[in-house]
Write a structure and sequence with these properties.
The complex is a heterodimer of chains A (81) and B (157).
Chain A lengths: L1 E6 L1 H7 L3 E5 L6 H11 L11 E4 L2 E2 L12 E4 L6
Parallel strand pairs in A: 1-5
Antiparallel strand pairs in A: 1-2, 3-4, 3-5
Chain B lengths: L9 E5 L5 H7 L7 E8 L3 E2 L2 E10 L1 H18 L4 E7 L1 E4 L3 E9 L2 H18 L2 E7 L4 E3 L16
Parallel strand pairs in B: 1-5
Antiparallel strand pairs in B: 2-7, 3-4, 4-6, 4-8, 5-7, 8-9
Helix pairs in contact in B: 2-3
The chains are: A alpha+beta (81), B alpha+beta (157).
């Protein structure tokens, strides 16, 4: 299954795209998504452990499954204010 | 959890200058005896390095959702009359206002505590990022420690 992942800040710069497509086969958890992102977008690999994943506007933990229509985003720790 | 929508809290992202006078006026009420206004501004020096300007970026949908959640969390813990959170995005020069948090409460202790909670949590969980444009010509995204973005909420009062 293909997932669209929105990218922000340094993650977007490294991926060189506002949004990337990630192909997942079999299990579809956040951990699987992280692995696939690292494989399919190697520029993200060095920082992947620091990147945060959000699903439908909520922070997601690695064991969470991803629903097919979920809105997914990937970004570094936040620094607003 | 109280639903923020029933309170008409002012939660905004903007590319324009933040009108903090208007924001402050908007949260005044006869029920409040205390109003606090916090302004975050672009600082020139950080640990010996000189900033020329900052660029802010947000994941707007989630940022607004998180700001509304924070408003609800705050209302659950303190007797807030009105509150507003406005964060600016885009290019900011030195001294410009990047964020404004305004809270009105019956008494000052609660207003200070609620305001501190809002700005502290905003900096932890709201997906907004700043990019430093340093005086040496380099630029860098500011990405603080990689700890969990979901720290436990502080105890209520």
């Amino acid at each position: 299954m293909d997932f669209q992942v929105k990218m922000f800040a340094r993650a977007r710069d490294l991926a060189d795209a506002d949004s990337v497509t990630v192909a997942l086969s079999g299990s579809c958890t956040i951990a699987d998504l992280r692995r696939a992102l690292s494989e399919q977008y190697p520029a993200l690999q060095p920082v992947m452990t620091n990147l945060l994943i959000a699903v439908d506007n909520q922070y997601a933990t690695d064991e969470m499954p991803i629903a097919p229509q979920a809105e997914i985003a990937c970004f570094p720790p936040v620094s607003g204010g | 959890m109280k639903n923020y929508t029933e309170f008409n809290d002012r939660i905004e992202l903007t590319d324009a200058l933040i009108d903090y006078t208007q924001l402050t006026e908007a949260i005044r009420t006869h029920q409040a005896g205390a109003i606090i206004l916090f302004l975050g501004t672009v600082r020139e020096m950080t640990q010996g390095r000189q900033t020329l300007c900052l660029d802010y970026e947000a994941y707007p949908e989630m940022a607004l959702a998180k700001m509304r959640e924070l408003a609800g969390e705050t209302r659950n813990q303190w007797p807030v009359e009105k509150l507003g959170i406005i964060h600016r995005l885009g290019h900011l020069e030195l001294g410009e206002i990047s964020v404004a948090v305004a809270v009105s409460c019956p008494h000052r202790k609660h207003a200070f505590e609620a305001g501190q909670y809002l700005i502290d949590r905003l900096k932890e969980v709201v997906p907004i990022w700043k990019k430093e444009n340093w005086s040496d010509g380099t630029t860098a995204w500011v990405h603080p420690g990689s700890g969990s973005p979901i720290p436990l909420q502080k105890g209520g009062t």
